[in-house]
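Wed. Picked up where I left off yesterday with Kinesin-like protein. The coffee machine is broken again, so keeping this brief.
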Amino acid sequence: MLRIQNFEGDVLFLDNKEQRVGAETMVGTPINGRTRQAFTVVNGGGHDLCPSSTPPSNAGSDYGVIEFTREDVEALLNEKAKRKDRFNYKERCENMMDYIKRLKVCIRWFQDLEMYYSLEQEKLKNSLEMTQKKCIEIELLLKIKEEELNSIITEMRRNCTSLQEKLIKEEMEKSAAVESLVKEREARLDIERSHSTLSEDLGRAQREMQSANQKIASLNEMYKRLQDYITSLQQYNGKLHSELSSVEDELKRVEKEKVSVVENITLLRGQLTVSVSSQEEAIKQKDVLATEVSSLRGELQQVRDERDRQLSQVQILSSELEKVKESTKHSSTELDSLTFKANDLEEKCSLKDNQIKALEEQLATAEKKLQVSDISAYETRTEYEGQQIFVNELQRRLADAEYKLIEGERLRKKLHNTILELKGNIRVFCRVRPLLADESCSTEGRIFSYPTSMETSGRAIDLAQNGQKHAFTFDKVFTPEASQEEVFVEISQLVQSALDGYKVCIFAYGQTGSGKTYTMMGRPGHPEEKGLIPRSLEQIFQTKQSQQPQGWKYEMQVSMLEIYNEMIRDLISTTTRVENGTPGKQYTIKHDVNGNTQVSDLTVVDVHSAKEVAFLLNQAANSRSVGKTQMNEQSSRSHFVFTLRIYGVNESTDQQVQGVLNLIDLAGSERLSKSGSTGDRLKETQAINKSLSSLSDVIFALAKKEDHVPFRNSKLTYLLQPCLGGDSKTLMFVNISPDPSSVGESLCSLRFASRVNACEIGTPRRQTNGRSIESRLSYF
Ligand SMILES: Nc1ncnc2c1ncn2[C@@H]1O[C@H](COP(=O)(O)OP(=O)(O)OP(=O)(O)O)[C@@H](O)[C@H]1O
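Structure written out below (tokens, as returned):
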């Protein structure tokens, strides 16, 4: 409330609004003795008192548009009458009137303002109602929300309770964890103590690692260089291959030429024999004619001599006759006798003349015949000489072709050997057999895949185990689809090496039932599925035959043994079998300084054809120790060693070669738990595993280039010593089963094979020295 006191001292009370408006619209009067002519026009002024909108103007009043400020109103209300003369009522009255006027104006302004405010109030009331309605709605909404929130809160409370329960549990766990933390802290202290010692070790190890890293860097450098070298070797290898194929083509061409030359020579030889015999006939005839002519000439000469003698007699007689005639004194009888003699002689002479003529005619015909036969003999001779020249030419060409053939063969052997050397000495081929009828495997269950990238195509195999991939690369990988023929093609060059005078060793390694015997021997009764051993022998005997025309003669010897429970058994001899585990004979293995191996008392058989060897193989297969295991119906319980020794002599070049071909079917590795072996079978399995583990020890020692390689740890490794650590060409087949249940064994076999692949042995040496009885008995 605003207290307003008028000039008369009356006090007026205005409510705040009025008070505020009044304050703004106070009528201007002389304040402090000054008279205001016009009221202050307030437009937006006095904001502190004025409502938000402009108050209504009191238009039409005596003062026009008048607005009051607080000060104006206060000044108006506090205005005091100026009394010059207290009793001048007129003046007082006028002042009062003026004051009242101004008050009226002010009041009117207030009234207008009030009206305006009542309108405003109305508006505000309306909006208040609206707002209240809205408030009610909002309250309703709020109630709904509140209910919702209440239900959420109830839910939250429930959650809270469960969380509290959990919290209690957690806290219990926490206390347990705290306890264990305490323990751990203690342990950590221990660890920290050991950590400090380990840190020292680590420092040392890091230093070592640094030097190792340096070594690795230098090794990487070397590896790069080696890679480059390998690439250049591979290029060289490719070149050698192409040269080899061109040499082989040339060889084939020369062979063909040789065959046609030999055919020509045989034809010409036939012709020559015919012409030589006709020439001999003609010479004989000529000789007969010549002797005839000479006898005729002798006779003619005799007749001529006789004639000459008789002619001289006739002459003598004629001169005598003349003498007689001249003397005429001689008796007529004497004369007659003389005449008779002369006539007789003349007759004889004419007879002789006739004889001479006949003889001369005979001589002429004989000489004609001689001339004819001379001409035909000359013709035959020239023909003979022509043919002789042709034969000589053919023989020269034949010798040339044969020389080229020998040279080509020599070059082929050299190239072939270079290729094998480039491929590395112990090579490893991996063969995965197909799934057998009783093994089933879905596509997802397949554990092997064969990457086909450019560099590793046909050489790589990936094994998947528990979602992990293990990648391996070998010299060759045969998929289950590979046939026996395809496998043999890859080793045929190696077999050829044995004929060229090298020691060759091919062995099959793998888990039991993985296909080793199938690879080496084949499937009995299925010739198209015969294995590497019969195929190798067929090739060797075929080559032996085809090299005969070049002067090569070969002798072959075969021996077969098995190592069963660490004992050697002769598979050819029928008298020395192990009966009930008791050995008949004790065989000992010896190596000489040339790396040749001898097994004492072992039967060695001379063989001349593949059939003979097939017979012996059959016999050996029947004698071999075979048994049934859980993994294989026909499991080989021993290591089978087939040895073919080859002695070759070239009669035209005096060259001698001495090669050995060892084909080995190892017994299958197997886990005792999986094999289900007991009794004797268990003993066998243990012996097999022991010798195979000795084999891996030897391989690892060789791979690490250790000074001591434990060859003597088993009969198998001791027997294989020249192949593994010596100068032979060695190839290992790692046979793999595709059965997912054998994945563990397959991984072990692949790992072992990859170690073998990394193994380096000595450089293969060709044996071209002379033969000796001792060397004939040697093995590997
Ligand atoms: N490549 C293949 N194609 C077809 N069948 C095969 C192949 N490899 C092996 N088999 C078959 O698998 C079975 C087991 O093979 P095999 O006897 O050769 O195994 P193994 O490794 O010699 O076993 P163990 O070490 O027990 O003697 C045989 O029935 C054989 O015929």
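Quick read: Residues 2-132 form one domain.
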